[in-house]
Amino acid sequence: MQKFLSxxxxxxxxxxxxxVFGWLVKHQAQGDPLLxxxxxxxxxxxxxxxxxxxxxxxxxxxLPETFVPTxxxxxxxxxxxxxLFSLISYSNENKGRSVEIRNLKNDESLHRWDxxxxxxxxxxxxxxxxxxxxxxxxxxxxxxxxxxxxxxGNELWKQDTIAHHHGLNxxxxGNIWACSYTKENGGxxxxxxxxxxxxxxxxxxxxxxSLLNAENGRILFHKSISEILVENGLENLLVKSANIExxxxxxxxxxxxxxxxxxxxxxxxxxxxxxSAIMHYRPATNxxxxxxxxxxxxxxxxxxxxxxxxxxxxxxxxxxxxxxxxNWRVADTRIDAGDFYSNTMAxxxxxxxxxxxxxxxxxxxxxxxxTEGMQEVLADGSLWIxxxxxxxxxxxxxxxxxYKNVFPSHHEGHHHLxxxxxxxxxxx
Length: 428
What we know:
16% helix, 6 helices, alpha+beta, globular
């Protein structure tokens, strides 16, 4: 009986306290702070906590995919001894996009363009290109044509008869090679290719290769990848791909800037992600010089290492993510096929051979990105890596991590998703 009366007393006191608290909140809301301004403001803050919490949760839930959660245990590393200039793009506080020249050695911003985003919240400016005089060429990836701005952000030209996607690179004449789509009926990404298989017509997305004059945006060359394949007897790549609807997926075009024994100035090397192939193509004659396949899958970002060697980012992954099987039983005892990481691979054109570049560093640091991914061999032989999906950025030399960081954002606990950071070889 004594315990019951004690609990009843506590219950009555709690109800009384809640009643008094509610009465004070009511008068505060009616503009009659009975306990003075300071206490009234404290009361407002206290009762508004849940609104603030709800707003914070709502903001995080609504963050577009251009922001990535930063792990609580993430530790940056910066042992850079030389300036490392980069061209980056990110989502700014005004829900637009900013493209910035930044020195990664000290995070100094050297120049910035702010660009409105009239498209979806997750649409990105990928792989923007810097021209002499701080002119900028950019697009919203797969959504728009190409635009050129001056250093103050004024539009100099636009080319909207094509859509740019993925990579942009300058050739030896200062013109722009671009991965592109052909525009039709106001749309860009269309199923323009088809083939017959066992009496069925399969349609697929065709990619195009475009060369633009950097001074005015005029198209100098434009060619369907499907036409290149058919005209060179390589249409089997369409069937080889694991992705029926998007079998090619051109993601980079790297022009040769000079003539060597193994390629000519004006040749291009193209990366086809979804059929895991790299093509050495000569636009001047419409001839495929070499098709490179082998121990790499879903690759990106081709660069020249020297006069006879190219390097590229090997994602080393499927083109489609797959979960555990549901229609067959998983064995109790399974065979371990090992761990897979991304890596940088080099292909020696002279010896027709592939080899790894800093493979152990990728494994030791668990570097893997299922899609996208960039690398660049710097002047001192170190390797720049953009681990795109996680947003981690690396510089590795002789197996040692010289630089590891992310691009911090204005959303606490989140960093920017990198959008194909371009390393600049000289101070802009």
